[in-house]
Amino acid sequence: MALKRQRIAELEELDDVQRRIDRVAEDLTSGRHLYGVIDAWDLARLLGVDLDAGGDGDPILFLYRATPEDDVDAIHPLAENIDLLSDHVPRKRYLHLADLAAAIEDEPSAKDIALTEKEEALLRAAYHLDNHGAHGVELTVTTVQSSTGVELTFESTDSGVWSPYDMKRGTGFDPGDLVMDEQSVDLLILTTNFGRPPARRSGRRAR
């Protein structure tokens, strides 16, 4: 705590916000990370970043993933949604799976259908596309730039804020099982390896 107060005092001694940004940018790129002990909220304040101002643009929306298990009435979540594979596996394989699913659904005590890893991924992707809602987590990104062109990025949601040091350490915003809204549209393509995930977060902006 004493070290944190010391680092805050060092930045506060610099009257000009740009000089503070330059100091932190130099520290970050040098790898010393002296100011990494300052939490994201305080660092944003010191660098003139208003986290309530809405960021550099519209927030990026990450949707809650919809899964077959979300249906509380489903006894065999995969078998009961086997029709979602009709356009994504060879016809002969689909008809075989459909027969297996029908037999399983006739026997409540039976185990759910066994799919290959790829088939299950396809079914889950298709289920998400058909059933996801409009709610999720909005990620706001705010960037300030040093005099030498180094960008310092802050990420924030309703539940947390992450500083450039957090991202450098790999502890920035973690979407976990959330699905980026733009990725939802391409989820089947991504799952079948016909395309590649976006190289950067640039999902459809939340409205």
Count of the separate structural domains? 2
Spatial separation of the terminal alpha carbons: 40 Å
Unreliable stretches (pLDDT < 50, length at least 5) are 193-207
H-E order: HHHEHHEEEHEH
Q: What structural class should be given to the helix and strand makeup?
A: alpha+beta
Strand neighbour order, sheet with most strands: 4-3-2-1-5
Q: Which percent band covers the strand fraction?
A: 5-15%
The largest sheet, given as strand count, sense and whether it forms a barrel, is: 5 strands, antiparallel
Mean pLDDT: 86
**Total beta strands:** 5
* Rounded Rg: 24 Å
Shape: elongated
Helix content: 25-40%
How many helices in DSSP terms? 7
What's a quick, concise take on this entry?
This protein has about 210 residues and is an alpha+beta fold. The chain folds into two domains: about 1-65 and about 135-190, no CATH class; about 70-130, no CATH class.
What labels describe this entry?
single chain; 207 residues; alpha+beta; 2 domains; five-stranded antiparallel sheet; 7 helices; 5 strands; 13% strand; elongated; disordered C terminus
